[in-house]
Each structure stands twice: as C-alpha cells, then as structure tokens.
Specification:
By secondary structure, this protein is of the alpha/beta class. The chain is built from 19 helices and 12 strands. The radius of gyration is 43 Å and the shape is rod-shaped. Pfam families: CbiA.
Length: about 500
C-alpha cells in the first residue's frame, strides 16, 4: 500500500468522481426510490390508528409558612416528594383509581401503557401525558390521573388511611400538609400525536434517498460497460488513440462528416477534429514506418466501426495523400451506400475475375485522393473470400499506391476481422462508450491475440460531450474554428453599434 499523500488524494478524488458519476447516471432510479419511500410513508401513516395526547400538571404543596427559613425547607421537601411521587404515579393503584374517575373502559395495565410521568428539573411539579383514541378520552384520563395521584399521595402521607377531620386533637386525627393538587388541566388535543405524518415523510424521504444512493453505487460498481478511457489501460493494456464525440452528424443512418463533402447533411467541427486527431495518432504510431494497411473492427455490430473507418479515410484524403477504403464486411456491407456510389460492383467481382481492380475503384468527387472499393455482390462464402490469396494480392496492390483502410466485420460473430488483422499491419478496435462491455471487448481482444494480430489501439465512439462525462473518456473538444470567430465578431459588432448609437444620442442631448 502506498503512503504517498498525493496518491491518496488522487484516489479519494477519483472515488468521489466515480460516486458523483454514478449518481448522475442513475438519477432517475434515485428519484423513483425517493418517491417510493414517500409513498410508503404516507401509506403507513394512513393505516395506523389515530392517537391523541393530552397533558395535565400537578403540584406538590406543603402548606403556607410565614417563616422564610421554614418556607425554603418546605420548598425543598416538595421537590423531594415530587420525585418520590413520580414512582407512585405509575403504580397500579393510581391507574385503577384514574380509570374509575375518568369513566373509561380500560384495565389498569392498559392505562399504565398510555401514561407517562415526568418531573421537570428543580421543580415540585409532576407532568402527566395521557394518550387516548379520541381527544376527549385523552383529556379525561390526564385530569383523572392527577386527581387519583393526589388521593393516593394523601393516603400514603396519612399512614395508609384516609385523612380525618382536621379538628381532631389527637395526632392520628391530623392530616398531612403534603398534597398533590392540579394546577393545569388538560386541553383538548386538536390533532393526533401519532402517527406523525411529518416525521413519517421525513423518514420515508431519507430511506428512499439512501436506497437510491446504494442502488446507484452498487449498480455502478458492477456495471461492466466501458465508461472510462482508463479501463483500456487498466483492463487491456491498450492505448486509446481516438475519442469520437456523440453527434447527430454521425447518427440516424449518417456515418460520415467533413466540410465540403456533398454526402454530408451537416458539418460538425468537433467530430471532424476528433477524426483528424485519430488520423494523426495512427500516423505517429511509427513515424518511420506508419501502418499502411490496417483493419477497423469492433466487438459487436452497432459499435460504430464503419463510421470510424469511413471518416478516418476522409481525414487522410484531406491531406492530399492517396487512401483506399475497402469494404471487407461481406455480410453487411455499408461503405458504398454511405458514400452513395455504385453498390453492384466491387471487391467480390475482382476476386472471382469478373472485373479488374481499377474498373471497380470509385473516386469521391469532393475528395479526389480517396478511392473506394465496395463489397460488391454478397457471396455465399465470405470467410473463404477474405482468406483467399487473391484478396491479399488486391490489398497489397492498393498498398503500393497509398494507405489502405479495411472495414471489417465485428470480431465476435465471425473470424474475418482477426484474419485480416493478422495478415496485415494490425487492427483498430472500436468500442461504443457506455454500451460495449468489458467482457465482450476482452473476448474480441483474445480472438486477435490468438492469431498474433497486432492491436494498434482502441477508438472510443459516441463519447458524451458534457463536461463531467467527456473528461472520463479523455475527450476535451472545444469549438475553435472559423464559425466561432464569425459569431464572436458578430457579437462585437452588435456591441460596437449599440455603443455608437448611445454616443450619438448623448451628443444630441448635449446640443
């Protein structure tokens, strides 16, 4: 274990970021569990019986005395007696008398369960709190309890017998001066004391939030989808050579972007720059001998491998360097349809000898350096076509003229991509951020390594562009292009015009 404070701080910060990401990712589940907690609290409160609480107060008195010293002693005695009478107040005798006085059909034991007694600090008072199923029942029981306590206390102070007339001359005829009298009768409760709806809702809210947080953290911990660029380094020891932001430019059936391309509906600066960065990273893998024939593949369909292959070819062509894009996905070819070129002739025609290579290569008018070799008619034996010597000869012939990019099928359904990667300079593996799982990618990488194929790097596709999420995928795209300058100049022009109008108005007013 490292004792480096910086490492500990970095680990703590990373854990906090992971927790924050988990909460943002599963905020809907957290809201749902919170609402369920509130609903459960309301349901519990609705089925609970209503209980009302009334409060009555008794005072221990010791008679009047004009002597200050005796009065202080009497006050101290009253406080001491109040503490003693607290135990008396919870006796069965007082409970039985109180039930009788209140006229409530209740056993003494049940009555004791409804009453609590307390003595405030440094006082001679006894506070009685009584519960009842109705407000009136609670009030009657509280008042009756104080009266019953007074009677029982008087009986005890007189030696266990009822007090006799004070006019008696014998000691036995004298009654004790210590009494318990009522000084505050119970008020009628206006609302039930139980169940407490506010407390129940607060507990339900906290319980729901806690359950939601735990769910989010556990779900995030066991989430096997690739949600961080660091996963490639920690799990697979593969560099991330490109991160492509999520954008409508390469969504909903559109796969290519780039300025000046007639097949593009909308230009997106961030996507264009991301593919330029990917192009640069690929070229600098080995500056003296960069890969000239590389395969672009993925673990499963839908990860965006064709999108990456198409756009990196466009990006290389923008440099004026010759590049050939070959559609080797002979099961679900997409390249010809994406670039809106002829689909009926292509790679398979050349392999079976029905056409010459130069006859089926198609140039993109907006990018003269880019030539495309479509898949052509779909054969019944795609794997045999890809593994043939004739296919290899075609690829090497194209490589003598420029860079060759092969759009290959996914690695898990078929073995074509592994064969191509092993035969040529290697493969780029495309993973969709937040969708491709670690297990699927691990199996795909194992398929490549079993045939000793070179893995050039990984490309994270459809990376979120929000600040918090993008940083986890090592994507820091910002708008820094001509359109941004135009918008900035427009804003400056509007401010300058407003300032000029203000100056002219001030001059007119002074004149």
């Amino acid at each position: 274990m490292s004792d480096d404070p910086k490492t500990s701080r970095d680990t703590t910060a990373q854990n906090l970021r992971d927790a924050g990401r988990a909460l943002r990712l599963h905020w809907l589940a957290i809201c749902l569990t919170t609402l369920l907690g509130l609903a459960a609290a309301m349901g519990w409160a609705a089925v609970q019986p209503r209980t009302y609480t009334a409060h009555s107060t008794g005072q221990v008195t010791t008679g009047n005395n004009d002597n200050l010293g005796l009065a202080l002693a009497a006050d101290q005695l009253a406080r001491s007696k109040a503490t003693q009478f607290k135990a008396l107040a919870t006796s069965p005798a007082v409970a039985k008398a109180a039930v009788s006085k209140a006229g409530i059909d209740l056993s003494p034991d049940a009555a004791l369960g409804r009453v609590s007694v307390s003595v405030p600090l440094d006082t001679a008072q006894l506070e009685i709190s009584a519960k009842g199923s109705t407000p009136d029942e609670a009030r009657k029981l509280a008042d009756a309890w104080v009266a019953a306590l007074g009677d029982e206390a008087q009986k005890i102070e007189n030696g266990g017998s009822k007090p006799k007339a004070s006019s008696s001359s014998s000691p036995e005829g004298q009654s004790s001066v210590i009494r318990v009298v009522s000084i505050s009768q119970a008020a009628l409760p206006g609302a039930p004391s139980s169940p407490n709806l506010k407390v129940a809702l607060a507990i339900g809210l906290l319980a729901g939030l806690l359950a939601g947080f735990i769910y989010a953290l556990v779900k995030s911990y066991f989430d096997r989808r690739i949600r961080s660029a660091a996963i490639f380094t920690s799990e697979f020891d593969i560099p991330v050579v490109g991160t492509i932001p999520a954008s409508k430019v390469v969504a909903d059936g559109k796969r290519i972007s780039g300025r000046g391309d007639t097949s593009v509906d909308t230009a997106d600066f961030r996507v264009t720059e991301a593919f330029k960065e990917l192009r640069t990273n690929v070229q600098f893998m080995n500056p003296d001998n960069p890969p000239r024939i590389f395969t672009v593949t993925s673990a499963l369909p839908g990860d965006g491998k064709s999108t990456v292959a198409d756009n990196i070819a466009l990006s290389i062509a923008e440099q004026g360097r010759p590049v050939f894009l070959v559609d080797a996905d002979l099961r679900r070819p997409t390249v010809a349809r994406t670039f809106k070129i002829i689909e009926i002739a292509g790679l398979t025609d050349v392999i079976v000898g029905k056409a010459r290579l130069d006859d089926v290569l198609q140039e993109i008018p907006s990018h003269p350096s880019l030539q495309i070799l479509g898949a052509g008619p779909i054969p019944p034996n795609p794997s045999e076509i890809i593994a043939s010597d004739r296919f290899s000869a075609i690829i090497y012939e194209l490589a003598e003229r420029g860079t060759v990019i092969i759009d290959a099928p996914p690695l898990l359904p078929v073995t074509d991509a592994a064969i191509l990667a092993a035969r040529f300079d290697g493969a780029l593996i495309v993973a969709q951020a937040g969708q491709t799982t670690i297990d699927a990618l691990q199996t795909a990488i194992d398929n490549l390594r079993r045939v000793n194929a070179r893995i050039l790097g990984a490309v994270l596709n459809r990376v979120p562009t929000s600040k918090g999420e993008a940083s986890r995928y090592n994507y820091y795209g910002h708008q820094y292009d001509y359109s941004a300058d135009i918008k900035s100049n427009k804003r400056k022009g509007k401010r300058a015009a407003a300032s000029s109008r203000l100056t002219r108005n001030n001059s007119s007013n002074e004149a």
